[in-house]
Amino acid sequence: HCYLEGLPLLYRKSVDTLSPYVPGFQPAMDGSVIKINSNENPYPPSPKVKELLGGFDFRQLRYYPDATSQPLRELIGAQHGLSSRQVLCGNGSDEVISLIFKVFFEQGDTVATPYPTYTFYKSVADIINVKVAFVDTAEDFVIDLQGLVNTGAKGIFIANPNAQTGRLLPLQSIEELLNRYNGLVVIDEAYIDFAGQQSSAVHLIGAYPNLIVLRTLSKSYSLCGIRVGFCIADESLIHAMDKCRDSYNVNHLSQIIAAAALSDQPYLETTVERVVRSRDKLEDELHKLGFTVYPSHANFLLCKPHQRSAADIYNYLKAQQIYVRHFDSPRLSDKLRISIGTEEEVESLLRHLRQYL
Ligand code: PMP
């Protein structure tokens, strides 16, 4: 740690226990490698985004952006049959997650979440000394809802489909959870477009004032580079969050790009369909190669090889300039998580796997 000479420790002592976020592995972004390790969308964003940027008057950038992201909130509200007062936008859904912790939890509180899941919930909790109760999923990664409730936590975070596993929790189960739990329930729907809108907990907004649904433009809209996410919840929760967010938390370019992409629903449907078709094909082919493949409703597949170790396959693919994800955490260590690439990328991956196995 860093004591400055002659000064007391300037930061909170618990900061010493944290580490900065660095992506596991970040290969070149120039298309020269097959990068299927971060659940990015292999297709470009909507052509409406290109059109918009082509005609963009850079002089607008001397103005501050719309502080409340109001036009974007209105668009999102209208798309879900809700009011803009039930929507809040953030600099990626990660910022919205941080904001949720800041507004709803304090030092000593506990939040519960399944294990495995998106690791950022714990990263944020650690910063403000909120405890995280991890509730192990079943062998096939089914989430133990009663286990989550039994922790007595003040809030429950569920990524649906779940991060790392792709497993979808049916809407009915979320409703059952909300019927017996009064704490804050955050349903993180980063991957929901790949599962089908009918599975979204947005349909339960209005009926459950303790529910927050999180969304992002990073996955299905191919826009992780602009950092836009949002949440939908009861007006009273959104109002509380609005009081605690940064003044201009979503920049102007991100706001207008997000609006252009959200307005192009036919493009979203086409790219999502292509990704889902490739996912189903990759699942079949991995089965044929002897992998165990966990059922996924997201834009990635978690799988377990049997002929060779996950680590060996990871390294072999890496040497071929194909980057998949290999975790070293319990439950995931002998598995690979493969994001769905273009049809050509999936073919290339399969060709190399067939050669190696
Ligand atoms: N939630 C889940 C479950 C995710 O996997 C991710 C992306 N890694 C995020 C939220 C954050 O997405 P972003 O900050 O790009 O909106």
From TrEMBL:
The protein's UniProt keywords, in alphabetical order, are: Amino-acid biosynthesis, Aminotransferase, Histidine biosynthesis, Pyridoxal phosphate, Transferase
Annotated Pfam families: Aminotran_1_2
How is this protein organized at the quaternary level?
Homodimer.
EC main group: transferase
Record's keyword annotation contains Transferase: yes
Which cofactors is this protein said to need?
Answer: pyridoxal 5'-phosphate
| Reactions catalysed | L-histidinol phosphate + 2-oxoglutarate = 3-(imidazol-4-yl)-2-oxopropyl phosphate + L-glutamate
Ranges of residues in domain Aminotransferase class I/classII large: 33-353
Q: In which pathway does it act?
A: Amino-acid biosynthesis; L-histidine biosynthesis; L-histidine from 5-phospho-alpha-D-ribose 1-diphosphate: step 7/9
Which sequence positions carry the modification called N6-(pyridoxal phosphate)lysine?
K219
| UniProt entry tagged with the keyword Lyase | no
Q: What is this protein called?
A: Histidinol-phosphate aminotransferase
Source organism superkingdom? Bacteria
Q: Which GO terms describe its molecular function?
A: histidinol-phosphate transaminase activity
